[in-house]
Amino acid sequence: MPHSHHSHSGQFCRHALGSLEEVVSEAIKQRFEVYGLTEHVPRYRLEDLYPEERELSLDDLSKQFLSFLNEAHRLKEVYAPQITLLVGLETEYITDHDLNHLQKLLKDNERRIDYIVGSVHHVSTIPIDFDRVTYEKALANFSNEEGVYLLGNDQMERFLSTYFDAQHQLMRQFQPEIIGHLDLCRLYTPSLDLKQYPIAWGKLIRNIEEATRYGALFEINAAAFKKGWTSPYPGKDVVALIQEKTGRFALSDDSHGPQTDYLVHVGITELWCLDRSSEPNHNGRYISPRRIEGDWRLHAFWKHREGEKRKITFQ
What we know:
7-stranded parallel β-sheet, globular
């Protein structure tokens, strides 16, 4: 039963471990039925590189992503008898420059990219998931706007609103099939009550309605456990909102074991996955959602065993 739509490998992502083939081998060992390979798209400004990437050039990053596509499609064929591999990408939206390049990348690699994981990792060009110090820097960026010194709710309101506006732009322009870690904006403040920020909450509602309208799946993403959360992304309040708006959920990121308990606890009664399609979807990609049949709750025996990752880390 296990499915995952969001993964990274150390071969093509500096904050992960293991080769892409090792990731696939582990997925097979863990009896995944469908597994998505989704490395980050390249970044296009030197100032956006992470510390571990400083020796790389922008050209290196672009070549690395194309090498990922080549390797992913090779593995897709080699392991076809054992697992369904989908080849996708995870977005970046730092500036509009990234979206322009993404448009070209998709056009140049038509039929090689099965689907998109739509994710936002930056607010006002500053990473919000690298470490707490950098997150605080991003938040402080909203402490003084238009000559007005902002504190507390006003500051957080604008920070959250900027995040959700970027997410909405990504949805409107590319209509990603999977919405990645919807509430990553509160990574370092997991108990933050988003309803206390009515403008941002309204933008979140707008985003969920937009994604639901065109048929996206919202990922239940286990990476939050590794970041100190007691639940996956998104939090219970956002899950309830997605349910209220008749949104559909998919598993991502080593999603077996603790996620099952969480899904039952928050009242999710059905799961979806992506499947290849003979007909193009709304964006011309040959992929479509499929409801997982049967009672997936019976698979609670798929327990996440901390410490048995070996060389593999799923991000």
